[in-house]
């Protein structure tokens, strides 16, 4: 059977692999599953948004038609205004496009920037879908090591830049690490990219759950920001629209004209109900989203407090939807993940899924997607992890 070699060389989707573990592993008796494997809201959008969507689907014929490839003009304008207000910069509607989820925004940006044989620098641990797209495209993912605080170093990145480098891609708040990149660090990366005339891709899928009030960085205050910066965003996490696939990309209009070719070929346009929901959310759900942020921050605090009481585990990063930790067991993390599922009813992803193959650090690391666990369930998680630790060490 013919097969593109790049696909054959690319690892299988990690979340799908973890779901297979669920079908293969009996859960311990009396312990309900704590599924901490995926960073996606499991609750539906808030009731007022669902009602608005239902009315629009029934009453607005245009919602069922193709929209412009780069997105609904009203949504593009409203999102541009929100970005400008939040970051204190100047952003026009012609610098914003809508995509079918933030993953597609990354794929579109990379497709425009790089060809097979080129390179993109990714800090490790990295978001596996970013590494997968590069691999599928024949583009080399160049791993940028991070320190004990999981923050990348611009000087180390500079040493990795070659004539084949087309971009540096950062995620903040980070997936999988949970850490937030300080404004000065992002400014240093933007300056580095500008000096080398490469792009800086900044994925802020989890921006709405940042611990910092106000603007997370100053990149948009540069009047020439779109010469270097490609900014990615997701409505999936903000308004629980995961199934409707609505993301966004902010970039230079000339770059978006090239991205339009990609989007027109792949999906033609974002779904009408999804775009309608994103616009309604921007116009009506600011207070609701602020409450969601506070709840995520409460869960983050519960995670940090829980790990302080948990023997053997070391919390490396915690923020937005994720905690990233070093486990205390002798076994490599894929075996630990299966053991935790079988013995404690806890599903989390091993660090090997977030690092290049053979990177030894991944064998000691685990990612915990805690956003769907309330503070009571987080307390239960710590109890279960503590018991497994006692059983292994006794």
Which key phrases capture this entry?
Aspartate Aminotransferase, domain 2; 394 residues; 7-stranded mixed sheet; 2 domains; 4-stranded antiparallel sheet; single chain; 13 strands; alpha/beta; Aspartate Aminotransferase, domain 1
What is the third-level CATH name, the topology of the largest domain? Aspartate Aminotransferase, domain 2
Largest sheet: 7 strands, mixed
Percentage of residues in strands:
15-25%
Order of helices and strands: HHEHHEHEHEHEHEEHEHHHEEHEEEH
Low-pLDDT runs of 5+ residues are none
Q: What is the CATH homology-level superfamily of the largest domain?
A: Type I PLP-dependent aspartate aminotransferase-like (Major domain)
What multimeric state do the chains show? single chain
So how many helices?
Answer: 14
Give the structural class.
alpha/beta
Distance between the termini: 51 Å
List the helices and strands and how they pair.
Elements: H1 5-8, H2 14-24, E1 34-35, H3 47-59, H4 73-87, E2 96-99, H5 102-113, E3 119-124, H6 128-136, E4 140-145, H7 154-160, E5 165-171, H8 183-196, E6 199-203, E7 229-234, H9 235-239, E8 247-250, H10 253-266, H11 272-284, H12 286-308, E9 314-319, E10 322-326, H13 333-344, E11 346-347, E12 349-350, E13 365-369, H14 375-393
Parallel strand pairs: 1-11, 3-4, 3-5, 5-6, 6-7
Antiparallel strand pairs: 2-8, 7-8, 9-10, 10-13, 12-13
